Amino acid sequence: MKLISWNVNGIRAVANKNAFSWVDEEKPDVLCLQEIKAEAHQIPEPLFTHPFTCKHINSATKKGYSGTMSFSTRLFDTTNTAWHIDHTKEGRILEHHFGDVVLFNVYFPNGQQSEERLRHKMQFYSDFLAHTEALRTMGKGIIICGDVNTAHREIDLANPKANEDISGFLPIERAWIDTLLAKGYLDTFREVHGNVKDAYSWWSYRSGARERNVGWRIDYFFISKELQKNLKDAFILPHIQGSDHCPVGIEITL
To answer: Given this structure, which CATH class describes domain 2-252?
Structure first.
């Protein structure tokens, strides 16, 4: 299966740029979108011709904000929005169950706005990991994809020293990813590509950052170690335009 995740930073804006044509070329089995900033009736049609069997939308209560959306060529057994984690109703999670695997499409909070939002982000991180760990005790393999809003290591952003006091690269945020990995989850891109440099998934719109590849790798696919043997590839698609993020993906046998 090919799974792709993309923070679109507004699905209507991306559609207006005709920036979904790549989907028909890549033909993912599952496409997970974050920050759609739209309600179900506002999603443009058609976005692409690739024949997905089903789609799920979790819009934020606040209009034009946040939100997640998933497309799949196979039916999930069940889907929910993990409301007990995303209790602020920001549309941040879609939790898909199929067989013994649970796929999470997540738009993790950004902590840059205020100290309160940083605390919210860290609580969200903690509650989310507790939830996935509970599912693992039930024998579930876990796949987590989406915009995590944190670069893990210095290799994951172009200017680590200049950003070490900025939310998105704070020690407390990076430590959560350390904890995630210590619990037995794998950063699939690093698992496949090791310490390759200059591999980013987000670039500021300012100062020609994308053209100069001054970016951050904040979009991930994590899998629980139980699925390690199933992982075939992990990749970033930096050539795809339309958002300040680019798609990331994995190929995995399920």
So the answer is: alpha beta
